[in-house]
Amino acid sequence: MRVSMQQMHRLNINSMQMNQANYGKVMQQMSTGKRINVPSDDPLGAVQTLSLQREQAQLIQYMDNISSLRMSLSRSESTLDNMNNVLYRVRDLTLQGNNGALSHEDRKGIAAELRVLQDSLVEHVNTRDEKGKYIFSGNEVDTAPVARDANGNWVYQGDLNQRDVPVGEGNWVKGNDTAGAIFFSGAADIFNEMDNWIAVLEDPNLAPGDPAFEAAFNGALTAIDGTMGTIGQTMTELGGRQQAMDLLETAHQDIGMFNQELIGEIEDLDYSEASLALATYLMALQATQQSYVKINQLSLFNHL
Question: What residue spans define the domains of the chain?
């Protein structure tokens, strides 16, 4: 088969272009350190990398949720612990107030301290987060959980909803607890029982041994013990949630490291192979260029 000068010219041009493209591709790979810079470099590898990167993005979101949730639950746990400390003192004073040896003035002094402690307890229940949202109001985050109504009674103003936060594939953690469940789930709540108990302590006509006094004392003590029990249970649940998140976070970190290794194996460049390929393409390009020059010089006139 005869090959014309035009065909030889075209073949050399194509060869130079191919070698130039391959040389440029390797140069780009070496500059980025990546074997895959565009999907066409390795379509299958690009798909695998994209899938792993999506999984990495999801893991990062889960870990961000865990970090945010850990801060939120730690705040709740600390606040509940402060409430418990207040209630320990309330309980001690309540037991003291039932002492028949105390004078009316002594009981009034106890009542005065109980009012201060009640205000402190309400303040803790109405704690806000860094965004100014109430942490114990359920989804009613802009409404104070506990307040007095028009009749002067303490009421819960939030709802009982708990927010589920995704922390892993198919794993959700409760992100909040409500004052309604902690303080108002029983027959009598601590706030109104304290009001009643304080009023009895301030009443000069009532003293230990009187049925009304004993009823108020028993009601207050029952509410205090019940509330402390509920707080303790809630704190235990909070600890369980945080432990579960710690385990998930460790698992996410391990998977993330494994995914990064896989991504590296798929797309990272082997510099020794790249250097050899670069030299090979450069030699081929130079050889093609030299051939092209010689072919262009071929002419019958050169042999006349």
Answer: 51-262
Main-chain dihedrals φ then ψ at residue 270, nearest 5 degrees: -90, 105
Residue among 70, 28, 21, 57 at smallest CA distance from 246: 70
Q: Is the pLDDT of residue 14 over 70?
A: no
Q: pLDDT tens digits, residue range 67-118?
A: 999 999 999 999 999 999 999 999 999 999 999 999 999 999 999 999 999 9
Q: Which of 150, 172, 174, 152 is nearest to 163 (CA)?
A: 174
3-state helix, strand, coil in the chain (%, to 5): 70, 5, 25
Q: How far, in Å, are 80, 127, 150, 240 from residue 138 at the CA level?
A: 15, 13, 23, 20
Q: The domain 51-262: what is its CATH number? A: 1.20.1330.10
Higher-pLDDT residue of 69 and 296 is: 69
Cα 164 to Cα 225: distance, rounded to the nearest angstrom: 29
Residue at 274: amino acid letter: A
Sign of torsion over alpha carbons 81, 67, 176, 145: positive
- For 69, residues 6+ apart whose C-beta sits below 8 A from its C-beta are 165, 167, 173, 175, 245
Q: In the prediction, which pLDDT does 279 show?
A: 57
d(Cα 267, Cα 49) in Å, to the nearest integer? 7
